[in-house]
Amino acid sequence: MEKIIPFAHNIIGKRVLPTDIAVDATAGNGLDTVFLAARCEHVYAFDVQQSAISATKSRLQEEGLENVTLIKASHAEMGQHLKTAPKVIMFNLGYLPGGDKSLSTRAEETLIAIKEALNMLSVHGLLSITFYTGHPEGKREADRLLPYLSTLSSKTYNVLRYEFINKSQAPFVVLVEKLQE
How does residue 136 score in pLDDT terms, banded at 50, 70 and 90? Predict the structure, then answer.
């Protein structure tokens, strides 16, 4: 079985086209940004931490990818920066690996960002949200976001949760496919 991130990448990789616009809502160390930039026309990558923006920029330079706009801002502000509906929006919640664990995505701000993402997403587009519940704020995010995601209309969205249920506090991913406006 595929681990969480490779599973999400596999699903997304089968959907995106070289002409698509994508968003990495939480740039972190740039892994999702590079994944998307290698497959899409343009990627907008957001993070509130300058160290994450710098790490992502370095990773993109190493890969020779220039089709990315790096934005030092909260994912809750992505609607202010995009003019085109993205085909894919990826969230990798929690704190920056190797960074300050007290700086983490927060439930209320992430909920705002998820609602904005669903509004902006193109029809047949995918929203990917990776949750890490092994720390207190990650647990709060899951507790706050999962009930909201479970109420999305099945006529408008398909919502899938992929997780390993025999591993305590293991990360999991939720994929949301937008079926219609």
Answer: confident
